[in-house]
Every structure is written in C-alpha cells, then in structure tokens.
Amino acid sequence: MQDILPIFRLWKARTGWMAAGIILSLLAVLAGLLMMALAGRLTAAAVVAGVIAAPVLLRVTGVARVVLRYAERVVTHEATFRALADVRVWFFSGIAQRLAGGLGLARSGDVLSRAVSDVESLDGLYSRILVPLAGAVLVLPVLVVVLALHSAILALVVGVLFAVSAFLLPVLAARATAAAGERLAVNLSNLRVTVLDAITGLREVRVFGAEGRMLAAVQAREANLLAAQRDVAKSARLAQLASFLLAQAAILSVLVGLGAPAPAAVAAAFLTIAAFETVGGLPRAGALAGYAMAGARRVRATATAPLTSADLDEPQPLPRDSTLRFEGVRFRWQAARTPVLDGLTMEIPSGSRVAILGPSGSGKSTLAQLALRLVQPEEGRILLGGVDITELKATELRSRIALLSQATHLFDDTIRANLLLARPDADERALWAALDAAQIGDMVRALPEKLDTWVGEGGYRFSGGQGRRMALARVLLSPALVVILDEPCAGLDMETEQAFLSTLNDLGRGRTFVLIAHRLLGVEKLDRIWRLSGHHAVAATA
Amino acid sequence: MGALGRPGASRYAQSMDAKKKAATAWLRQQSAQGRKAASGAIVFGLLGTLFGVIQAAAAADLLRALIVRDDQPVLLAAIIFGIAAVLRGLMMMGADAAGFAAGAAGRRRLRSETLNRLLSIGPSLLRQGHSAHLAGIVVDRIEALDGFFARWIPAALMAILAPVMIVVVAAIADPVSALILAACGIFVPFAQAIAGIGAGLAARSQLAAMMRLESRFLDRIRGIGTIVLAGRAEDEAAALRVAADELRVRTMRVLRTAFLSSTALDLAAAVALIGIAIQQGDLILHAAHGAEMAAQSGRALFLLLLVPEMFAPLRAFALAYQDRGAGIAAAEALIVLPEGETDPRFVAEPPAAAPVTVAAHGISVAFEDVHLTWDKARGPALDGVSFRLPAGGAVILAGASGAGKSTVIEILLGFVRPDSGRVLLNGMDMTSIVPQALARLTAWIGQKPVIFATTIGDNIRFAKPEASATELAEAVRLASMDSVIAELPDGLDTMVGEGGFGLSGGQVQRIAIARAFLKNAPLLLLDEPTAHLDPATEAEVLESLKRLAVGRTVIMASHSTQAHMLTGRRLNMAAGRLLLGDAQKGVA
C-alpha cells in the first residue's frame, strides 16, 4: 500500500476530473438501476393491474443512462490519462535527480519499462477499481433497502453476497496475483532489455553470428512473460467465475424468495440483476491490481531511490567567485578497490586556464565528477568560491560548471536542438561560433539542411569524431563560467586538434577553462598545469 | 529539443495507400491463422450463450410464478437455473482460457517472425530508425496484438453467431419481439462501421504518437546525465508533459469515437428493452383470460431477459473493435520494416544461386570500382574505390573523418551493399556468400564496441558462448586484460553497465579485442579501434592488436596519427576516393 500512496498523492491535483468521473458514474448506475426496475415493474404491472405504468419515465431513464454512460467513459479516461502523465513526469524528474551521473549499472531498457509499462499498469486503478467501488458503495444500501421491503432475510443474504463480490473478492484476487503480477512486470522489463540489447547491438550480433542466440534469448524471456501473464489471467478468470456465481446465487435467491406485491417484487428482481452487473468487473480488476501494485512498487523504487547527495534544507547562495578548490580529497569507486585519489589538494582560480594531466586511470575524469557533485569524496571537501559545494544547491552548482565528458550524449534530434540544450536562448550567430570553435562549422555548413540536420541515435549519422565535436560545440555554447573539457581532442586528428586548442586560447576571457588531457601539444596558453600522479596532484610549470 | 517528428516521415506518407492495402492483406492472413486458434473460444462462447438462454427461460418461469401465483412448481426451474448458471460460468472460463492461449500463440509467432526479420536486415536498420522504436515494435506492438488474437477474432464471429441464435429462439416465442431484437441488433454493426472508420484513422496517429513518446523517453533516459548537467531537467520534464498531452489528446480522439459505438449499443439495447416491454405489456393487457395471460407474461419476461443476452456478444464486439485498431496499427508498423529490403543495398537474403561459402583460411580481398551513396544530399561515400589485398596482408585506410573509411569496412561486414562495382573475397563475389558464412569469416573492432549490461566475462563470451574457461582466459591474456581483471575483486564476474560503465575507454577496446581473439576469424576489420584513447593506452592496445593481426588479413581504418603503428600498406582516402598513386598501387 505504501507504494501506491505517493502516486495517489500525485493524483490529488486531478481531484476535479476524478470526482467528476465518479459522480457521472454514480448517476449512470442510478439511471441503469431505475431503468431495469421500471422495465420489470412495467411488465408485472401490466399483468396484475392491467395498466401500462410509467413508460415515459422508462424512456427518460433509458436515454439518461445512455448519455451518462458516454460522459462517464470520456471523463474517466481523460482523468486516467492526465493522472498517468503526472506519474510519468514525476518519474522523469525523480530519475533526473538520481541519475545525474548517468545510468551506471541500471539498464536503460529497464528504466524505460518502468516509465512506460509499469506506469501503464496503473491505468485501471481509478477507472476499473475506484469508480466501480464508489458505485458499489452507493448500490449496496439501495439494494438492501429495496429488498428489505420484501424480506429482511433476503436483504441480508443478497447484501452479503453483494458485499463479498464487490469488496472481498477483489481484495482476495489482488492478494492472489501479487506474486505473479511482480513476475509479470519484471519479465516484461527483461524482455524489453533483451530486445534492446539485440537491436542496439545489431552490428555485434551480425559480426559474431549471434542472431540465433539473440532470438533464443528473446524467446526465453517471452516464455517467462507469458507464464506470468497466464498465472495472472488464471486468477482473474477464477475471480470472475466466483463473482458470476455469487451474482447468479443472489438472483436465484431473489427469484425464489420474493413475495407479493408482484410488480414491486419483479422490479426488485430486475434491480438485483442490474446491481450485480455494476460490480461484475471488480474481481477481475482486483486480480489485475496485483500487477498494478508491482508496477507502482517499481515506479516508486526508481523515482524515490535515496539521493546520493541531497541538497541541504537551507542551501547557501551561489558565490560570485568561481574559484574551485579541492582540499585533501580522497575517493574510491568501491570500498574494496584502492583509492583513485588520496589527499588531493589543488586550486583552480576563477578565470584561469588550467590543464590537468595524467595517464589513463589516474583519476582525471573523477575530478570533474567530484566538482559537479556527481560522486562524493570519502574524505576532504571541494569548495566553489570558498563555499563547500555540499552546501550549494546542486542545480545552481551545475549551472556554474559545464562539462564535456566521455559520456556526453547526442540526442536523436537536429544539430540545432542538440546545441540549444546548453543554452536555449542562443541565437544563430552563437550557434555557428560554437561550431566553428569546435572545428566543425565548415562540415555543418556543407550539409544541405545545415543546423536542421538530424544527428541520429547517439549521433549515429555522423562519425565518432564529428559527433564528439558537436558535443564540444554544445559545451562551448553553455553560459557556465567554468568549463571542464575532459579529453576534448579524443578522436581528432592532429591538425584538427591543434586548430581547436589554438581557438580555445581566444575563447571568452573571464571564464575558467579546465583542460583534462593525457598530454599537451604546446599550442595551449595556460596559466597553470597540474599533473596527477600517485593519487594526488603536483603543480607543474606552465 | 522540440520537434518530435523524424525526417523521412513524409516519405512514408506518400505510400500510405499502398501501405494500407498491404496492412489489410496482412491482417486478413493473420485472421485466417488466428481463427483456427480462436475456434475453442468461439465454441465455449456459443455454449455459454446457450446456457444463458436456458437461464433466461428458467428465470422467466420463476418470475411468472411470482406474478401469476399459479400452482406450477418452481423447484425445477430453480434447479435448471442453478445448473445452467454453473455451466455457463465454466464456459466463460473456457472461452477466456482459449482466448488467452490464442493471444499467446499469436504473439509468440509474430514476435519471433518480426525479430527474425530485424536480425536478418541487420545493422543498416540503425541508420533508419531509433533502436527504441524498433524494440518498441518487437515488445509493445506485438503485446498490443494480444487483443487482436485473444478478443477481436472470437468476438467478430460471436457477434454474428450468438445474436442469430438468440433471434431464432426469440422468434419461436414471439416473432414481433424477435423482429424488434433483430432490428436493434443490426443497427449495432452499422453504427460500429460508421464510428469505426473515424476511430481507425485516429488509432493510427495515436499509436504513432505513442511510439514517438517511447523513443523520446529512451533517448532522454540514456542521456539523462547530459540533460541534468545542462540544467535542463525541468525543461525536459515540461517537454515530456507536452508530448504526453499530445498522446492523451490523440488517444481521447480515438476513444470518443470508439465510445460512440458503445453508446449506440447502449441505445439499441435500451430501445429493444423498452420496445419489447411496451409491446409485450400490450399483448398481456389484451390477453383473453387468466391462463393465456399467465403464459403470455412468462413469454414477455423471457423475451425481456433475452435482451442482455443478445447484446452481450455485441458489446464484446464493440470493445474488441479497439483491438482491431491495434492490429491494423501493428500491421502497418511491421509493413514499414521491410522498406529497407526494397532498397537492394540492404537485402540480406541469400542469393538465388546455391549459397557459396569460402574456405575459412587465408582470405584475399579485392574492391573493383565500388560506388556507394548513403544519402544523395550528402554526396557519395565511396566514389570508385579499387584495391587488392592478398591473404594475410594488411592495409591501413587513412584519411580524415568522413573520407569513406568506415564505409569500406561496413561493406566488408555485409552491413550494406555497393551501388555498383564488386567486392571479392578469395575471388568470389561477396553477394554470393551467405551472411552466416560471412559472419564466420570476419572479426571486427569498431570505434564504440557495444558493451552489454552483464559481467565482463559474458561480454567477452558473446563472441563464442561455447568457449571454455581456458579459451576465455587465453583471450583475456592475449588482449592484455589479465592484469586489469586481476585487480577487480570479482574478476571476470564484475558487472559492467550499458556502454561500458565501470570500464575505461581502453578497457572497452580490450573487451572487443578479447572477443576478436576468441572468435579467431581470418579477416580482421578494424575501424579506428583506438580513436578515443590516450597515446599510452593507444600504444598498449595497438600492441595487442598487432598480436591479433598475426596470420590474418587485416584492414584498418585510422586517422593519420595511428596509421604508422601497424605495419601494412597505407591507402590514403579523401571524399570517397583513394588518393592518386595509392589507387594505382592498389590494383597491383
């Protein structure tokens, strides 16, 4: 239940739509009950009294029921879609706070499955459970009172049957499918992960002749999914059967147990039929709720996972000065592994040009992640303008520092949209300036669609070096005062690399540039060089 | 990140009509296959309706007894009612189970077929669409087809058979009421057809919007770090809200029309109920005496109770109409796929002649005036490339980004075929080699090897799942990964993330090299394998590559700085051509 509560809290904003759906549904149920009761009474009255009573009312209720049912369907669905969109946006904001450093060991297919299928599984909670439950709460007293006019025992028997069908069976069904529902959600996610692996790895699959293996793996995942679905369907089916038999038992009791007066008795019998019809779907919906609960659990687990570095309740304002200072920083990726950095102390003054050099694995890239609070040091602290960065708001800290990392992603969109990500209000001139600085302006100019060229998934339509330079252009476009470039020249040939580094010398005075590299070409104009060795930084001459 | 549409979407629109026809034909074929599987559901369904009619008769008898108070015993009717109810419940279970089985069988078959097709078209698909879109077809589109097999196919037949059965029964009781029932019943599919046309159109655009939302989601999830660091998480959430709203609006457009057909059905049911009530009431009023009146009232109640039985299968039909929409949309998504196949360059099917395999030892390679254009607007990628490489020889393709080096490699991998010219392996035209045989011949190390989210060991074993522990250890050693593995607490069982999280760039390349050692193929294709590495790591990786190259035919694409590190003939490329001098030497 605690998994579903945050989602219901989220839906509070949709109270208006949801309440409207429930009210329309209740009115439709009432009109339906009235129509059935009147139709029964009409026939019986014709026999007993020789008059045709209330055909006008019958027609009115008939039409009202049809119209109300339509309105109910439209409104409840509208409410559901709005509510699901709320969950998706909440989920996205949740992972954005938690996965700022990238997916890590999480699988993108699994996160996608949570965002798509698991959220989707919640769609029945309102329209198929809450709405008919509200109807059942309304119908039960009506049914009991009407029957009690004929026979107290009958009212009691039918009332109990109704309550079991509407309230107890759905709960039992939900309990019965809890495990299978969990398996269903997990196996659907596994299927998605495996299919995505086969498709993103199409090249590897072809080269290693793994088509048959991939197909077999997908079929195995699918078999697990189908088995879980079969179990859920079986429980749903049993719940449905139980609900049907309860309704039939109730109808039979009414038919056998009712006495005079005849028209009212027939009306009561018809009413019973209609009443059970309104809750007939609830036990099946209950069985599916087991799946929805699993979905809610998975959505919540990802969206509300503990934050690696939560903001303080009262964060410090962002200082004006941008000096970055590392003080006695010690960091390791896993407790069992040796520290990457140990006792690192280093200062990068505001507006300076600094290079950080070191061999592969010396912790150069880790420095950038530490500065952006993507990872936390085990010991020591990092200061921005004299303020410990743990005391700043993470979003503000990150607005001050722009990073080009090895993991920088190109989105499946146009070049323009990819660049604008860094600065939405940048004008055409600024875009071209950034592309030129990244040594890719001429290439883009030669494209027939120029800035509106689609880059493809992960920049697939361009070579690795071209994609890297687009990402570089994006970082250069960013208004951040501190720019950290982690191996900006990887994948570039020597000439392009030299041209880029020369351009860098003339870029925006007043901004800090931190160049993380394994070596220097000699064309860079630098204020300071730090060399990382033996887990800490040593100042080298510029 | 505004626009959601992909370029080329309009290209699909041109062939809309042809596509629709193809989709309809495909669906018809699926229906034929699905009907066999659904026959169980239909038999159970019809039996269920039959027991429903029996129940209605028993209930009417009980009600009549209640009204008329004659002395006929009600016990028998009550027992019949109870037995029929139990049997009917069991039939409902049976129909449901049979429907599930039909849906599962349909999905299983289509998912395998679809994935098979994707795998046989191969890597060129990734140039056409986002992997999330393709995966979405295999996962979600096929899941959505469940309703088509499990519900739509049985419901479509039941909607004809069951009402006919009821109308016949009603006609025996009272022809006029049967006529009212039949008239109201016929109105339903009629209304359905009118509402269905609109709903069908809207359903397609709705599904397209859903696929776009899914692709967008995956792309944003993969780049979540980039979004957050650019401070755009809130804007992205807002954009996501807009996309979700678009999906909602489209979906509601579908549903509003679909609900209209349900409303037409409610209306028809209400009209039938009221019509029969009034007509029967009238008959009862004019009945001559008590006995006739009693019989008449029994009939009237029976006919009234038939109304829900009549409309239940029609209701199921109306509900399943959405499943048919999902079927059409899925059919169209599947029909679009082989569009790659109409482009002869992407055809992966074996040639008409007997499939030829090439001896697996010592491969010579020759390009003869090869031309290839990926995208007309961007000019040719290869513009008349010719060279020859003896078995066991090595060639280094040098040149700037975009010179066409990778295209040479992709042709040799069989990812794409030349527009003109020939590529020969051991003197045999590549087009005559079946893809499986080609896959056995080649090992490949690209710029960004795909790392799966599993252990390091499993990632290497991807090249040869049946490899023994010794073979695996040997490949790790030859790729110089053994020292790295030794430092990891979990060794080869260390988990890594998608895209190589937890590994350095050099380590990712080493996994690819270990894969190539494990595979042990005679033709080694290297596409800038050290592009993202620093010189120290690059030198180490090249050391491993040199070991790997021994005794194999090697083609390596590389930009100038690395080119000298591997011994071999150097071919300089620019703008899709071999530079003069090289070209002449090439055709030695």
TrEMBL record, chain A:
<dbReference type="GO" id="GO:0140359">
    <property type="term" value="F:ABC-type transporter activity"/>
</dbReference>
<feature type="transmembrane region" description="Helical">
    <location>
        <begin position="238"/>
        <end position="258"/>
    </location>
</feature>
<dbReference type="InterPro" id="IPR027417">
    <property type="entry name" value="P-loop_NTPase"/>
</dbReference>
<keyword id="KW-1133">Transmembrane helix</keyword>
<keyword id="KW-0067">ATP-binding</keyword>
<dbReference type="GO" id="GO:0016887">
    <property type="term" value="F:ATP hydrolysis activity"/>
</dbReference>
<dbReference type="GO" id="GO:0005886">
    <property type="term" value="C:plasma membrane"/>
</dbReference>
<feature type="transmembrane region" description="Helical">
    <location>
        <begin position="44"/>
        <end position="68"/>
    </location>
</feature>
<keyword id="KW-0472">Membrane</keyword>
<feature type="domain" description="ABC transporter">
    <location>
        <begin position="324"/>
        <end position="542"/>
    </location>
</feature>
<dbReference type="InterPro" id="IPR011527">
    <property type="entry name" value="ABC1_TM_dom"/>
</dbReference>
<feature type="domain" description="ABC transmembrane type-1">
    <location>
        <begin position="19"/>
        <end position="256"/>
    </location>
</feature>
<protein>
    <submittedName>
        <fullName>Thiol reductant ABC exporter subunit CydC</fullName>
    </submittedName>
</protein>
<keyword id="KW-0812">Transmembrane</keyword>
<dbReference type="Pfam" id="PF00005">
    <property type="entry name" value="ABC_tran"/>
</dbReference>
<feature type="transmembrane region" description="Helical">
    <location>
        <begin position="153"/>
        <end position="174"/>
    </location>
</feature>
<dbReference type="InterPro" id="IPR003439">
    <property type="entry name" value="ABC_transporter-like_ATP-bd"/>
</dbReference>
<dbReference type="GO" id="GO:0034040">
    <property type="term" value="F:ATPase-coupled lipid transmembrane transporter activity"/>
</dbReference>
<dbReference type="InterPro" id="IPR039421">
    <property type="entry name" value="Type_1_exporter"/>
</dbReference>
<dbReference type="InterPro" id="IPR003593">
    <property type="entry name" value="AAA+_ATPase"/>
</dbReference>
<dbReference type="Pfam" id="PF00664">
    <property type="entry name" value="ABC_membrane"/>
</dbReference>
<dbReference type="GO" id="GO:0045454">
    <property type="term" value="P:cell redox homeostasis"/>
</dbReference>
<dbReference type="InterPro" id="IPR036640">
    <property type="entry name" value="ABC1_TM_sf"/>
</dbReference>
<keyword id="KW-0547">Nucleotide-binding</keyword>
<dbReference type="GO" id="GO:0034775">
    <property type="term" value="P:glutathione transmembrane transport"/>
</dbReference>
<feature type="transmembrane region" description="Helical">
    <location>
        <begin position="16"/>
        <end position="38"/>
    </location>
</feature>
<dbReference type="InterPro" id="IPR014223">
    <property type="entry name" value="ABC_CydC/D"/>
</dbReference>
<feature type="transmembrane region" description="Helical">
    <location>
        <begin position="129"/>
        <end position="147"/>
    </location>
</feature>
<dbReference type="GO" id="GO:0005524">
    <property type="term" value="F:ATP binding"/>
</dbReference>
